[in-house]
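FORM 7B: Structural annotation worksheet

SECTION A. Query
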Amino acid sequence: MRTYILLSLLILFGVGKATAKMDYPRLEKDFYLSPDKDKILKECKYYLHEMDRVLQDTARYNEAKREKIRRLQRQLVATKNYSAQVMLLLDLQQEYAILNLPISLEYAVKAKHLALQQNDYSTFYLATIKEAALLVKGGYFRQSAALLEHIPKEKLNDTLLAQYYETLFDLNFEDGFVFPGEKNKHDTFSKAMMAVYLETKKRFPHHRLLLTKMQTEYYFHIGDYKRAVNYALKLITLISPGTEDYAYHLGNVGYTSMGAGYYAQAIKYMARSTEQQVKLGSAEYPTMRKLSEICTIMGLHKEAFKYSAIGMENAKRYESLYRIYEVSQFYPMIHDNIIKTLTRQHNRLVVIVLILILMIISFIVSIIIIRKKSTDLKRQNVIIADINHRLHEANSITIAVLGNLISNQSAQREKENEFYKNVARRISVGEYNGAKDLLKNKSSKKSKDAYVLLDGIILELFPDFVTQFYNLLLPQHRPDNIKTDRLTPEMRIFGLIRLGINNNSQLAATLNYSVNTIKHYKTIVFNQSSLSNEEFYKRLMLIQYKSNE
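SECTION B. Predicted structure
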């Protein structure tokens, strides 16, 4: 419980970033020191070229996917048979699972409700597990955990129990990937993953596919990439080619190979994964993000930019703020490399200009080159400005909205998803001002809800905050009937200070007050206390939170 609260706070206030990253400087150094660097580059470019050929047919595969969905939807409308209805709902959920997260969730929930109406608990549990798995993909770890906790394992058949264990393992893996901290066999998430693995192995000792998948992800999580590669290669031999799982786990071979420093093998399997996912009509292939990372490491900056742009476009199409957040994390490195490339080009241009000035005979040629280079430089500066704008917009939406989504009640999900659809739709067509206005209007209309959310976080971390806060004031300023379930504006300000936000400007921005209002409320509180300001702050920081574990 405490883990999810802290994660919400980190994202809400923008003080944490995903740290589940590989050692990129080491990988880059090892690549450039490799005696086979040129051979590796040539091999990698071949795999990327083959992948790009498949990417050119993305629209054709997407249309085939949409036609398949339309056929299933027509069948669903036409049938009145319960068994046929629920199977069609689950089929549609599966089709949208790689196309659009909110719609896939809707079908999972519909199947769950329909099964419950018919007292079909086996299908109800299946749809619930699928819903939990989708929430993991969307970054809604708290809601996914809540769903899994309410599933009675003893009532599941072997097939459902295996899916339950797989989803629970993936929840800990993804949660551990996002949450800041050390990644080793002793961290909280590694222990949780190992516990699920051991329980699965005891219950299904011969389930090679599931156990191998868990081993792959576990060793990837703790950074033992070479061992993870071995398990990932074994895993794809156990999965039928042409399936969604096969396409996804080809990418896992690529990710683990990247961590192990097997550059050509990494790009080979990431490219194959992308090709398979494109042919399936998917809009959710995270290989683009990893390809942009390894291309940056190998100095393929043009390719890195192209694949990161595709990854961001896919994340928006999939309508997952979690995926947008993941893709945006590597943007700064790509941006820095583009800047360095432009700087090198600029320096080279200066040298060329100086040499050409001394070469009167080549004066006309030098002028043409200078103009051409200047034009290229301006065009690339425009591209950089566009990247900066997109990065700012993506990070603002991700950090501000994702934190609220994680901490809000799951009952509000459908309403929130509709809002994010509108934001994503405007961004996808370039209406950034419209998206910004929507966010601004949402913030103003829900300021009261924001205070309720903030109060809930503070009171959950510090259940005795109200009582202890009043103890810092003179007796005549303490009310007779203290209400411990809500905060006054003054308490809210000092609650944020207790959380570590002590800058007046930050406080004002968080609470939508002016800086003068913040100062005014502080003055009121200090005047009601016999303590000096320094002593007041000192005692405020002594208020301890209580763990809910």
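SECTION C. Observations
The chain has a mean pLDDT of 83. The radius of gyration is 27 Å.

SECTION D. Sign-off
Analyst initials: ____
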